[in-house]
Design goal:
elongated; single chain; 21% helix; six-stranded antiparallel barrel; alpha+beta; four-stranded antiparallel sheet
Length: 278
């Protein structure tokens, strides 16, 4: 008897799902089954958009807003939003409903969308952003880290801006960008003039492992991509033979964007060289 009830329930579920095919918002609108409006809430991440839905048909509608969908601001100076969490809506015949859209800015240099800015779903999404959004849909993290990961893909922000504590997300984005995992982290200045993503790095920090074959004195130099000496980090420090760990932390607000190199030099020659980018 229990087996029969289970099979009956399964058949019912399959029938319901077959009858109510899941439609994307844009496809439902193209079929004249749905009207919708999407407006800004005055922020750029998390539940940052309001959506008004109105069914135009007598039957119920099962609708989806997929992770990876890009919502285009009609104000070209304001940021577009990448949807990072799939949402499913069920509307009865001719029903109206309101919902929040969960997404993140994917135009770091634009202004934060103002309240009631109109959005559309016209713009195609880069395949790497779609991959990231689908990953974020199943691997949730805090808002700031999620936003940083989106900017790493949408705007080329250094991978090091994703905190090392989020190792799996770092590795996923590194795979998308075909880059090695950085040894360091980058912290950015606060934004100004309502531009949400500051383009100026504030601080670089991280541990550097190195090995000394013979005890002696060592110095650490910072040089730019052209080999010019920027600063002596440490000069003529006594270091014993063996493995060591060096904590590097430096304010870089006054440094121009680009690649920099830390040179570890002992009495017996070069020890190691570490690169970072801001």
């Amino acid at each position: 008897m229990k087996t029969l009830l289970l099979l009956t329930s399964l058949v019912f579920a399959i029938t319901v799902n077959a009858k109510h095919r899941l439609l994307s918002l844009e496809n439902a609108a193209k079929l004249n089954l749905l009207k919708f409006k999407i407006k800004g809430t005055g922020t750029h991440q998390g539940k940052c958009l309001n959506m008004q839905l109105e069914s135009s048909c007598p039957d119920s509608l099962w609708l989806t807003l997929e992770a990876g969908c890009r919502l285009d601001s009609k104000n070209e100076s304001e940021q577009d939003i990448l949807v990072t969490q799939e949402q499913i809506f069920v509307l009865g015949g001719f029903q109206k409903a309101n919902a929040k859209v969960i997404g993140y800015c994917c135009q770091a240099s634009n202004h934060t969308p103002q309240r009631n800015t109109d959005f559309t779903i016209d713009k195609p999404t880069d395949k790497n952003l779609v991959s990231l959004a689908r990953y974020l849909n199943y691997h949730r993290t805090d808002e700031q880290t999620t936003q940083t990961a989106v900017w790493c893909v949408s705007n080329g922000r250094p991978l090091a801006s994703i905190p090392k504590i989020n190792a799996a997300l770092r590795a996923f984005v590194a795979g998308i960008r075909n880059e090695e995992l950085p040894w360091y982290e980058v912290e950015y200045n606060q934004s100004v003039n309502n531009v949400m993503a500051s383009q100026q790095a504030k601080k670089v920090f991280g541990y550097i492992d190195y090995k000394i074959q013979q005890s002696g004195k060592m110095k650490i130099e910072l040089r730019d991509s052209k080999g010019r000496l920027m600063i002596n980090i440490s000069d003529q420090k006594d270091v014993a033979q063996g493995e060591h760990e060096f904590w590097f932390e430096m304010c870089v607000s006054h440094y121009p964007k680009g690649k920099y190199y830390l040179h570890f030099l002992s009495d017996n020659g070069p020890v190691t060289k570490k690169e970072f980018q801001i």
